[in-house]
Specification:
The structure is a single chain. The chain is an alpha/beta fold. It has a single domain, classed as Nitrilase/N-carbamoyl-D-aminoacid amidohydrolase. It is 31% helix and 28% strand. The protein is built from seven helices and 15 strands. Strands 1, 2, 3, 4, 5, 6 and 15 form a seven-stranded mixed beta sheet that branches. 45% of the residues are buried.
Length: 258
């Protein structure tokens, strides 16, 4: 299949308020279902926000399995390939910042654990970095995930390109005052690797006085911004032509020179 409709949920996230965040995501997914999207992307840490304090491990353990079960039920109910942004994953007493990819039947098709943690937010104090990177297999070919801060490090994006990715998703909580970095880096990663970048950032403020500008977007393999949100809660949707990936790679074979 060469065309796929992708939706992004750009939302505010209530720090530490799992119940409110869950209700709001369900409401947004109802909107997505009316757009006939086939894949939907959520922002980073949408279920709890970065509620990083001494209670965070308790919060993560309390809600991890319930959140994953909910995402599985949502993907089935709305018949979506759901890329669940990221949630705190608890495994063997370790906590990971993890993105799960779910099928329309509620199956876990793959997951990716954030490898480069953001030191200014003290992510490295609460999370264990992931290891390894592998493309997700979908009916539309291979796709990949990189998470927020990892946008600043091109090697992971290049590895996904070498594995054959046609689309890379970037769930994020990318704050002010770095909006120009966000736009520039997203376009650069698309241009360097000649694939679509689908990036979903949050909006609003959290209790640590950080504010978020949204600006979620879809960038094509030539670096052109096809769809871009403003600074408000919204659901975006766009059908993309995946054959453009191979067309651009054929006409301008960057990786042949490598």
């Amino acid at each position: 299949m060469e065309r796929v409709r992708i939706a992004l949920i750009q939302m505010d996230i209530k720090r530490g308020d799992w119940e409110t965040n869950v209700k709001r995501v369900f409401s947004f997914l109802e909107q997505v279902s009316n757009l006939q999207a086939q894949i939907c992307l959520l922002p980073e840490m949408w279920s709890t926000g970065f509620a990083l304090d001494h209670n965070f491990p308790i919060l993560a353990k309390k809600y991890f399995q319930e959140t994953l079960d909910l995402m599985r039920s949502w993907s089935h109910k709305f018949h979506l390939y759901l890329l669940g942004g990221t949630i705190p994953e608890v495994s063997e007493e370790k906590i990971y910042n993890t993105s799960f990819f779910l099928s329309p039947f509620g199956e876990i098709l793959g997951f990716y654990r954030k490898r480069i943690l953001f030191p200014l937010l003290r992510e490295d104090k609460y999370f264990t970095p992931g290891s390894g990177i592998q493309c997700l297999k979908t009916p539309w070919g291979k796709m990949g995930v990189m998470i927020c801060y990892e946008l600043r490090f091109p090697a992971g994006f290049q590895e996904l390109r070498l594995q054959g990715a046609r689309v890379v998703f970037v769930p994020a909580q990318f704050p002010r005052p770095r909006e120009s970095h966000w736009v520039t880096l997203l376009r650069a990663r698309a241009i360097e690797n000649q694939y679509y970048i689908v990036a979903c950032n949050r909006v609003g403020e959290d209790s640590s006085s950080l504010s978020y500008f949204g600006n979620s977007m879809i960038v094509d393999p030539w670096g052109e911004v096809l769809l871009q949100a403003r600074e408000k809660e919204t659901v975006l949707s766009l059908e993309v032509e995946l054959s453009l990936v191979e067309k651009i790679r054929s006409e301008f074979p960057l990786y042949q020179d490598r």
